[in-house]
Amino acid sequence: MIGNRITHRTADGVRVPGTWRHAFICNGGTYFLTDLFIYADGIVDCWDLVTLDEFEKKLRSGWVATSLPDGGRASAHHLASWTFDEPATWLTPELLLAEVRDTIDKLNGRPDSTGRCLAAVDAFLAERTEENRSAARAAYLAIPETVRHYALGDMDRKDRPLQVLVTGPGGRFPQWPEKRVSQDEYDQAVAYFEERSRWRAEAPSRVPADGAVNSFAPALKLPHSYPQRALEHPDKRCLRNDYPAPITLDDVTYPSVAHAYWAQSVADPEARIAVVTAETGAKAHTLAAKATRLEGWERTRTAVMARLLRAKYEQHSDLAAILVATGDATLIYDDADSDFWGDNGGRGRNWTGRLLELVRSELLAGQARLG
After folding, report:
1. pLDDT (tens digit, 9 = 90+) per residue, 90-143?
2. What is the pLDDT of residue 2?
3. pLDDT tens digits for range 155-168
């Protein structure tokens, strides 16, 4: 279900991954075709952010509709409207809830119902007792019916070998109770899973060789502030670009990274001097905003900022130690003046935060004498 449908929301400065699927919401007697957003922390957006328990109530009440009445009015907002004529749906509240629970497990990297079933099958194959088979059968039946076909990832055989294995010789198929599993079918299913186990054991590892994808430390937010003077005991506020930490580049000393950035952005030399000597980083920005920008500045500004941040933390070891102490935390940098440099509640691109993480990595590499 997730596939390439990747989205996120920001909660308390933390990026929460999510995905979405189509759904009908019944409001005022009209069935609106919309998107149901599902997030890793168990929050579901069905025209309102709700917990999983609240979402179940929305399902039971028909707000999130799984049955569509013949003659019911439908709308895709401003795209189209129509009336249902002999509508057919295979979803039930139970099925949709189970699929959403599976999606939350996947978003968190946990085994979903399919993964738990296959683990139970492995346990049965390792010790073929009826108790283990019964556990595997229960795990199979816990997979939403709409996705059981894809449990093995075999588009030719679908889930047939799985049904046969968890049923056992002489047993009745879960989906076809009038049919019984023959001994020959069962032997073929066992052979299928034994071959599958050999293939999985011989397959190359898909675990990234260079480590985890996500950080382990909680995200660290650097809210917009206007530091006026250096702190006696610097804290995360020193990671702000307008924090008073002088840097020297090309024989010019700037009171802060912000002063240096804005000074290098302007085309007029006199305006540049005024920016460099501004009382604060905020005033440097105000002066630069009134001046003419260098041609091509937008295409080079990221490289300029990277150079300035490297200079700051190379020339101030105490501040570098604070940056390194953030570990592998995602750095969320707010900038009320720029959605390019700031995250700004998930609306911005957070380039300052990203470059700080890059410089942090370079500092760590230097300490380890790597690179």
Report:
1. 899 999 999 999 999 999 889 999 999 999 999 999 999 999 999 999 999 999
2. 57
3. 999 999 999 999 99
Rounded Cα gap, residues 45 and 51, in angstroms: 9
Helix (H) or strand (E) holding 304: helix 297-315
Q: Residue 166 burial by CB count (10 A; 0-12/13-18/19+): exposed, middle or buried?
A: buried
φ, ψ for residue 80 (rounded to 5)?
Answer: -170, 165
- Segment holding 31, helix H or strand E: strand 30-39
**CA dihedral over 160, 164, 167, 170, signed as positive or negative:** positive
Q: CB 127: neighbour CB atoms within 10 A? A: 8
How crowded is residue 176: how many other Cβ atoms within 10 Å of its Cβ? Answer: 9
**Helical packing angle, 281-290 and 269-276, nearest 10°:** 160
- Output 239-244 pairs: Cβ under 8 A, ≥24 positions apart: 239/319, 239/322, 239/323, 239/331, 239/356, 241/281, 241/308, 241/309, 241/352, 242/280, 242/281, 242/282, 242/284, 243/281, 243/319
Quick one: tokens of 156?
């030719």
Q: Per this entry, what is the length of the chain? A: 371
DSSP annotation of 237 reads G
**323: amino acid identity, one letter:** L
